[in-house]
Automatic annotation (TrEMBL):
<dbReference type="InterPro" id="IPR041872">
    <property type="entry name" value="Anticodon_Met"/>
</dbReference>
<keyword id="KW-0479">Metal-binding</keyword>
<feature type="domain" description="Methionyl-tRNA synthetase anticodon-binding">
    <location>
        <begin position="421"/>
        <end position="571"/>
    </location>
</feature>
<comment type="similarity">
    <text>Belongs to the class-I aminoacyl-tRNA synthetase family. MetG type 1 subfamily.</text>
</comment>
<dbReference type="InterPro" id="IPR033911">
    <property type="entry name" value="MetRS_core"/>
</dbReference>
<feature type="short sequence motif" description="'KMSKS' region">
    <location>
        <begin position="346"/>
        <end position="350"/>
    </location>
</feature>
<keyword id="KW-0963">Cytoplasm</keyword>
<dbReference type="GO" id="GO:0006431">
    <property type="term" value="P:methionyl-tRNA aminoacylation"/>
</dbReference>
<dbReference type="InterPro" id="IPR009080">
    <property type="entry name" value="tRNAsynth_Ia_anticodon-bd"/>
</dbReference>
<feature type="binding site">
    <location>
        <position position="156"/>
    </location>
    <ligand>
        <name>Zn(2+)</name>
    </ligand>
</feature>
<comment type="subunit">
    <text>Monomer.</text>
</comment>
<comment type="function">
    <text>Is required not only for elongation of protein synthesis but also for the initiation of all mRNA translation through initiator tRNA(fMet) aminoacylation.</text>
</comment>
<dbReference type="InterPro" id="IPR029038">
    <property type="entry name" value="MetRS_Zn"/>
</dbReference>
<dbReference type="Pfam" id="PF09334">
    <property type="entry name" value="tRNA-synt_1g"/>
</dbReference>
<dbReference type="GO" id="GO:0005829">
    <property type="term" value="C:cytosol"/>
</dbReference>
<keyword id="KW-0547">Nucleotide-binding</keyword>
<dbReference type="InterPro" id="IPR014729">
    <property type="entry name" value="Rossmann-like_a/b/a_fold"/>
</dbReference>
Length: 572
């Protein structure tokens, strides 16, 4: 039994996530967690909400709520939707937890002790009436380039020109509208990533089996232009983790917080501590996942994320870990994804474009989405969600192939032989061939799952469903029963066993349908079918089963057109 630590990129708190976010991080991580549990490994699967930073403050202000209250509410909303998609986190934590405060301050203190932090003086816009420094997005004014009157401090949305807040004509604070702004000097902490550059490069070079997407992004940041740069890790904001050196005051940094990208990945560790707290377990319980000096040396650590998160996980977070000089676990395998696009454009939370997780569940159960998203995961390139493709995939793979097999076999058996596994007849050549082919295909499927080749794994699973259908088609028990009922019984006995095997193999992709199949077949034995011949004869003659409710329904053309129309616009 192996010990497997899995973290999904933590979703940002400022709204409900779209299907792109889901397939780029949480969903494939869940697939991998479920698969490894099914193989009997010890799994710790961690996710959380990413709660700090300016966008959270802005979203809270828009909702008219204090930011802490807004985050607490949105965390519950996201946790509920995650349950709806059957995301099997061991813990879904919060980056604003006390655990993360303490751990983030601890890491900063260690980095300072190691000489890896430098203090930098910067010029920044200060709003006298608001009593605070303003991040670029909090400042608006007239664009010097095109005259647009709501250009932001970092960019003009009208002409796209990149701006400095000091470029704006008649700038004002978006918080209060005040024009009483001045440029003041402020102090920030920078992590000396440059001095860790060679160490980071050697570490990345040692990862020969990582996806090219992952290593190419890391290499770009290491080498492009002047190479890896030191990075500001503090901000002049109210909402965040107060800057401290361990549990000590940091002179000159009073009132400042850590930058959200500094504390967010540390939450993977803190979240595991939150898990232990929630279980009433001592620190040793989470430390054995993270500290190689406290039992984590046999842990293999996998991360899942979309491509935009890769630099922070290949460089910044490892710089924090390596720089601390403490024996924390570094990631062993980083699975990254390209982007899923939506019907001819991009998904966008800020612009409300695409299908969002709550909307998806309101029209179809989670298995339909899980299957489509995973079987079309943007692995080697970006992929695109279209309603046509979704309809075809659901109707063919789920309804025609898998659903149809389950319903045909169980209904036929009940009508001809009753609702128990029939006992007569012997297996023949055809059955032996099916069992042999299944054995090989299950090995291929497992290899894809272990390599986290999500699309290939789904293709293997589909092929496993297809060979069952082909067998039934060729064996044709509904014809054979007329001349040789005992042969037909043997065929159906095998097919009922096949349904149980399908439930086990399909569960990581479509857990609800798998549970329905297993319940209908009257078993709770989820043992992985390593011994396929044994698994295909596991249900004894006389074992009772039932006909399940229709596993999957088809999507009609009218529904497809209706949804396409309904989701074409912008979610406000
Ligand atoms: N279109 C997409 N396809 C696949 N993965 C995506 C997509 N957009 C974001 N992701 C990934 O989703 C995960 C969660 O992202 P996060 O909550 O930070 O939202 P985001 O990156 O700000 O995206 P958006 O602004 O579109 O919501 C991250 O790992 C990110 O890389
Ligand atoms: Zn402009």
């Amino acid at each position: 039994m192996a010990r497997i630590l899995i973290t999904s990129a933590i979703p940002y708190i400022n709204g409900i996530k779209h299907l792109g976010n889901l397939v780029g991080s949480q969903l494939p991580a869940d697939l991998f967690a479920r698969y490894n549990r099914a193989r009997g490994h010890e799994v710790m699967f961690i996710c959380a909400t990413d709660e700090h930073g300016t966008p959270a403050e802005l979203a809270a202000a828009k909702a008219g709520k204090p930011v802490a209250e807004y985050c607490a509410e949105m965390h519950e909303v996201q946790a509920e939707i995650a349950k709806g998609f059957r995301l099997s986190f061991d813990h879904f934590g919060r980056s604003s937890s006390q655990r993360n405060h303490a751990l983030t301050q601890h890491f900063a203190g260690r980095l300072a002790d190691a000489g890896l932090i430098r203090e930098v003086e910067e010029q920044q816009v200060y709003s006298v009436d608001d009593g605070r420094f303003l991040p670029d997005r909090y400042i608006e004014g007239t664009c010097p380039n095109c005259g647009y009157d709501s250009a932001r401090g970092d960019q003009c949305d009208n002409c796209t020109k990149q701006l400095d807040p000091t470029d704006l004509i008649n700038p004002h604070s978006t918080i209060s509208g005040s024009t009483n702004l001045e440029v003041r000097t402020t102090k920030h902490l920078y992590l000396r990533q440059r001095s860790l550059r060679d160490k980071l490069e050697a570490w990345i070079d040692s990862k020969k089996d990582w996806p090219i997407l992952t290593t190419s992004i890391a290499k770009k940041w290491l080498n492009d232009g002047d190479g890896l740069q030191d990075r500001g890790i503090t901000r002049d904001l109210h909402w965040g983790i107060p800057v401290k050196k361990g549990d000590q005051i940091w002179p000159g940094m009073e009132g400042k917080v850590f930058y959200v990208w500094f504390d967010a990945p540390i939450e993977y560790i803190a979240c595991t501590a939150e898990w232990a707290d929630a279980q009433g377990l001592p620190d040793a319980a989470w430390q054995r996942w993270w500290r190689t000096d406290m039992g984590a040396s046999d842990v293999t650590y996998y991360q899942f994320m979309g491509k935009d998160n890769v630099p922070f996980h290949t460089l910044s977070f490892p710089a924090t870990i390596l720089g601390s000089g403490e024996p924390w676990k570094l990631v062993d395998y980083l699975k990254s994804f390209n982007y899923l696009n939506y019907d001819g454009g991009q998904f966008s939370t800020s612009r409300g474009r695409g299908v969002f997780m709550d909307q998806a569940l309101s029209i179809l159960p989670s298995d339909y989405w899980r299957w489509w998203l995973l079987s079309h995961a943007p692995e080697s390139a970006d992929s695109e969600f279209t309603w046509e493709n979704f309809q075809v995939s659901v109707n063919k793979d789920l309804a025609d192939v898998l659903g149809n097999l389950v319903s045909r076999v169980t209904k036929f058996c009940v009508s001809k032989f009753g609702n128990t596994v029939p006992s007569a007849g012997e297996m023949g050549e055809q059955e032996a061939r099916l069992i042999e082919e299944l054995g090989q295909r299950i090995k291929d499927y497992a290899a894809c799952m272990e390599a986290m080749e999500v699309r290939k794994a789904s293709a293997e699973l589909r092929a496993i469903w297809v060979i069952g259908n082909e067998y039934l088609q060729a064996a044709a028990p509904w014809s054979v029963v007329k001349t040789d009922p005992e042969r037909a019984q043997a065929m159906i006995r095998l097919s009922l066993n096949l349904i149980r095997v399908y439930a086990i193999l399909s569960a990581p992709f479509i857990p609800d349908a798998a549970a329905t199949m297993m319940a209908a077949i009257g078993s709770d034995d989820w043992t992985w079918p390593d011994d396929i011949a044994g698994a295909m004869t596991a249900l004894p003659a006389g074992h009772a089963f039932s006909v399940p409710e229709n596993l999957f329904r088809k999507i009609t053309d009218e529904e497809r057109a209706d949804w396409q129309q309904k989701f074409a616009g912008i979610r406000s």
